[in-house]
Write a structure and sequence with these properties.
This protein starts with a strand and ends with a strand. It has a five-stranded mixed beta sheet with strand order 2-1-3-4-5, with helices on one face. The protein contains four helices and five strands. The chain has a single domain, classed as Beta-carbonic Anhydrase, Chain A (3-Layer(aba) Sandwich). By secondary structure, it is α/β, with parallel strands linked by helices. About 35% of the residues lie in helices and about 15% in strands.
Amino acid sequence: MLTCMDARIRVFEIFGLLQGESHVLRNAGGVVTDDMIRSLALSQRKLGTREVLIVQHTECGLSMVTEDDFKDELEEASGLRPTWAVEAFREVEDSVRRSVQRVRRSDFLPHTDNVRGFVYDVKTGHLTEIA
């Protein structure tokens, strides 16, 4: 399971899982990045994972920034411009669809048939399947 680092997303509770029943990967936005593909590849190839769930959420901080503005801010503060993508987005549903496609198209993942995407509403607790 790949989700945002937002503490409001209680992954095990949402899916009715017990501790230890799922690998949980978290990053800003719950987007599929190269590092998430690396972790998913290890999970699938060495630990037997066969399904990938991507859970992003409403009111995400990544929907409130832009790539260039955040990179400009970091460059101004540090003197260095990040080489990595911020992965900012406006519509969470579109971001979920992009992340699902990145997993499905990855040559590093042997199990790409069972990939599902969801949006979690942080106000209502409702989970909507997107892709």
